[in-house]
Amino acid sequence: MWQWFHKLGSPKWFFGIAGRLMPWLGWLALVVLSVGVVWGLLFAPADYQQGDSYRIIFIHVPAAYLGQSLYVAMAVAGLVGLVWRMKMADTFIASATTVGAGMTFLALLTGAVWGKPTWGTWWIWDARLTSMLLLLFLYLGVMALRGAMEDPDIRARASAILVIVGVVNIPIIKYSVEWWNTLHQPATIKVTEAPSMPVSMWAPLLICLLGFHLLVAWLILWRMRNDILLRERRARWVREWVLAQ
Amino acid sequence: MRSESRVSVHFAAGEEGWLRAAFETVRREWLVAFRNRQDLINPLVFFVLIVSLFPLGVSPEPEFLRQAGPGIIWVAALLAILLSLNLLFRNDYADGHLEQWVLSPQPLALLALARVAAVWVTTVLPLILLVPVLGVMLHLPAATGMVLVLTLLAGTPILVLVGAIGAALTVSLRGSGVLLVLIMTPFYVPVLIFGTGAVTAAAEGAPITGHLALLGAMLSLAVVLAPLAIAGALRISVSNG
Fold this sequence. Notes:
The complex is a heterodimer.
Chain A: H1 2-7, H2 11-43, H3 57-84, H4 87-119, H5 127-148, H6 152-180, H7 199-231, H8 236-244
Helix pairs in contact in A: 2-7, 3-4, 3-6, 3-7, 4-5, 4-6, 4-7, 5-6
Chain B: H1 2-35, H2 37-57, H3 62-85, H4 90-94, H5 97-103, H6 108-137, H7 142-170, H8 177-203, H9 209-239
């Protein structure tokens, strides 16, 4: 277990293992997402209230879920980076920031498109929408800080501190906004109780959720590999690898 | 027996050293502040300017001002604090003072806390003292003005403490004014919500103790955790040298 953990600190080892994993992840993501999206968009029953417009849920919920969980994953990576000074932790933060911001933006966009037919407005200052918007601002803040710093070591530690401070504040922000204003329907799938949706609706949603996870894993590995090449561009193994291509 | 007594004496001396260091930090901060009076006045002018833009830009109707006034004052105070925090560690970083802080035997978090407290007194307290005047200009009832001052007293220390983390992270970067606003504004949302929420509740005749209690809870959390984050961020920025 510890040996595996130490290997994670080696860019060369990680680059190789990520390169071998990526095709599997990519094809699996494509297959699972196709199954989930086609099932959800074509075969799942229409909602008795919202009609076909609810079908955007198959994109909206996975994007929102990943937008939130990627920030927490970044904070864990930040802690690992601060404690063990692991290079890969910062590479992960660099990659996950962009992907997480993209997912959060996608959730806001699909939410706006969904809100128009169901609530009659593109945007409303509801608790969940506002906290997703603030989450996007948190991501943009991390990106801005990283963009302003040149020294990779300083950048790694500074952004680790910022994401850790952010993750401590996220519950406070979330509950203060929730207390402030709520209109959004409560979460559809909860771990603790049976979902309020019929199986024919939540089964494709779960498949889409899995597919999005695979896709995000693939995207992050892809970006991490690019980041490693950029960072280690002076190392000999990178030159050999590039020449071999 | 002997070694034990020596340890305890040493401990007492150390603790005295801590207090003394914190006290000296506050004293130095105040001396510097009163010798650069313009730096004290600038945030105040900025604060009044931002507030006076709203009657000009939106509407001078007393009815509108009475409704929007507390929010306007809170947002203006928030921006003024962010703007002045940009200078919080700047000169100390430039003249090498921060490096001495990091090397000093006293805990860096304690020095940071003392610094933040001193800054709150010199830059934020005058701002709060101005609020009753601005309240009259925005046609706020006296009772609302009092509640507003109370929420600002409880809320602005949180803003300074949390903002100081960002100031410490960005101190080594050139032209980081906008950067600090970008990074820190999302963290200010809860304080803004409960600060203005208390004023709205008071205007409707509802009790405000809940809001003040939540602000107090956030303040105690910030007092305990923020100095540690500030110290960590300062160490990173100093190693950038």
